[in-house]
Specification:
heterodimer, A: 197 residues, 6 helices, 66% helix, flat, B: 167 residues, three-stranded antiparallel beta sheet, 59% helix
Chain lengths: 197, 167
């Protein structure tokens, strides 16, 4: 009601201006379809999503994968899935399924344990390094102005170093899984070797 | 002095990272091909170590005497050359774009930015080729190993059945 009164008062006071506006509306303005105008950060986010999608599509692009024959040897196909005795074995990010892959071979199981240990420790160290890098701006802001830049870069470098150590441990773990598979295959080829320390 | 110590420390860390993926167990001498590095480019056969180069070199020797595997290795090599070339082109374009961006005036840096984005296109395309080349390499190794036990079944390349409920 108040708004209506205000409009009424404007109409009475600004009548010549409104008439001129209506004239313009009739002749000068045309009705355009609504086109959204995005903020720069939104546009950038859309570009980032598009590039991310392109990268994901690229990395998972359909390629013919040869499925190894059912064999007592362990083989790994191009999709990263292990095969043995006609069964598929998916080894998870945290090493799940690795024991069943080399089940029955104590020598290979020893390597799998090493793989899991290094993988877990490496991942934890990597995450600590990542957290240190993420915390570097806050740590830099907490010190006096003169020490801000060296502190920021120092903490950033420390975090990067810790992350590299974590990644190296994870890589060593992955290599131990390859060892486990090779040990298993060697023991299959020569059963007399299996069980030896 | 501090810079030298830092550089040496960083170089040691990166070297450690590069060495970390190498397997410690030496597979026994066997006609089967065994992988010995997590990068999927180092193999052992008959007690001999084979390294596959950045452009796919060395693959033919690894799967010698197997026609199907050799054909796949040649495909792998071609794709690696394409992938590396495209990646180099994209990287060069992006570096040029960055140089243009940081040296131009604040009002006239659109050209540099456009070049940086343009450089991403061949880099994304190279990822497709790299992925496909890796598939060919691993397929060739598996075909070689399977052929040691008998002829390859023609349906081995058939796509996997869709998951239950999938289209």
């Amino acid at each position: 009601l108040i708004a209506a009164e205000q409009i009424d008062s404007h109409e009475s006071r600004d009548a010549p201006v409104l008439d001129a506006f209506e004239d313009l509306g009739a002749e000068g303005f045309s009705c355009q379809p609504f086109e959204p105008v995005y903020h720069r950060s939104v546009r950038r986010a859309r570009h980032a999503v598009a590039i991310g999608l392109a990268l994901v599509t690229a990395s998972t692009s359909a390629c013919a994968t040869y499925h190894p024959r059912a064999s007592r040897f362990i083989s790994r196909d191009a999709d990263g899935i292990h095969h043995r005795d006609g069964q598929d074995f998916k080894v998870g990010m945290f090493g799940g399924g690795a024991e069943s892959l080399v089940g029955g071979d104590p020598r290979a199981l020893e390597y799998v344990r090493r793989y899991k240990h290094l993988d877990h420790v490496g991942l934890a160290v990597y995450l600590v390094g990542l957290a240190t890098m993420l915390a570097s701006p806050f740590i830099g802001a907490a010190v006096p102005d003169r020490a801000q830049t060296p502190t920021l870069y120092g903490v950033l470098g420390l975090g990067a170093g810790i992350s590299i150590v974590g990644a190296a441990l994870t890589f060593k773990g992955e290599a131990a899984l390859i060892d486990a598979v090779n040990v298993y295959n060697d023991d299959v080829a020569d059963p007399a070797r299996a069980g030896r320390p | 002095m501090i810079r030298v110590v830092r550089s040496v420390g960083a170089a040691l860390l990166v070297a450690q990272l590069a060495r970390a993926g190498s397997a410690s167990y030496q597979p026994r001498s066997s006609p089967r091909i065994a992988s010995v590095h997590i990068n999927g480019r180092a193999y052992v056969r008959d007690g001999q170590r084979y390294e596959i180069g950045l452009f796919g070199g060395g693959g033919d020797e690894l799967v010698a005497n197997n026609e199907a595997a050799t054909a796949l290795m040649r495909k792998h090599r071609r794709k690696e050359i394409w992938a590396t070339s495209l990646f180099g082109l994209g990287l060069g374009t992006s570096i040029a774009g960055n140089a243009l961006f940081w040296t131009a005036d604040a009002q006239d840096n659109r050209r540099g930015l456009a070049l940086v984005w343009l450089g991403l296109v061949p880099m994304v395309a190279s990822a497709v080729f790299f992925n496909s080349a890796r598939h060919d390499l691993e397929n060739a190794v598996n075909i070689y190993n399977d052929a040691l036990e008998g002829p390859i079944a023609p349906e081995a390349f058939a796509p996997s059945p869709p998951p239950p409920g999938g289209r």
